[in-house]
Design brief:
- By secondary structure, the chain is an alpha+beta fold.
- The chain has a single domain, classed as GTP cyclohydrolase I, C-terminal domain/NADPH-dependent 7-cyano-7-deazaguanine reductase, N-terminal domain (GTP Cyclohydrolase I, domain 2).
- Strands 1-2-3-4 form a four-stranded antiparallel beta sheet.
- The longest helix is centred in the last third of the chain and has 15 residues.
- The chain starts with 15 loop residues before the first strand and ends with a strand.
Length: 134
């Protein structure tokens, strides 16, 4: 294995990012009865702010946040729970991520519905939450 010189790296005040984009899950969230009964696809984009300095030197999974486990945490919330508001769903996802992944300092989470039961022409409707660890 080739060793990388640490002299080429520097730390900024900006937090590093881990992105999960376009995660698709089937769930039963919504204010309309048919959403609670029939369900629909939810598209989740999640950006985690994490200090990845150590992982960028070590090449060790335990020095980062395992995005596969983050995906599973999001999936569990979307597929195993039922909320009226996607805002509440997003809040629950953020809470789970902060509880399970201590290195995460901030989260930007978008949840979109591609086919909500409203008349009109659109690509999707959704919400975005930004949360920081306190």
């Amino acid at each position: 294995m080739r060793k990388v010189s640490q002299t080429f790296f520097f730390v900024t005040n900006n937090m590093d990012k881990i992105h999960l984009k376009g995660c698709r899950f089937y769930g039963y969230h919504g204010a309309f009865a048919e959403e609670q009964t029939l369900g629909q696809i939810f598209v989740v984009d999640c950006t985690l702010s994490v200090d990845l300095t150590k992982a960028s030197y070590s090449d060790r999974l335990e020095d980062t946040v395992h995005y596969g486990l983050v995906f599973e945490a999001i999936k569990k919330q979307v597929e195993e729970n039922k909320y009226i508001l996607i805002e509440r769903l997003a809040g629950a996802i953020c809470q789970d991520i902060f509880e399970q992944f201590l290195p995460v300092q901030a989260i930007t989470l978008k949840i979109s519905k591609e086919n909500p039961p409203i008349n009109g022409h659109y690509d999707s409707v959704g919400i975005e939450l930004e949360r920081e660890r306190v």
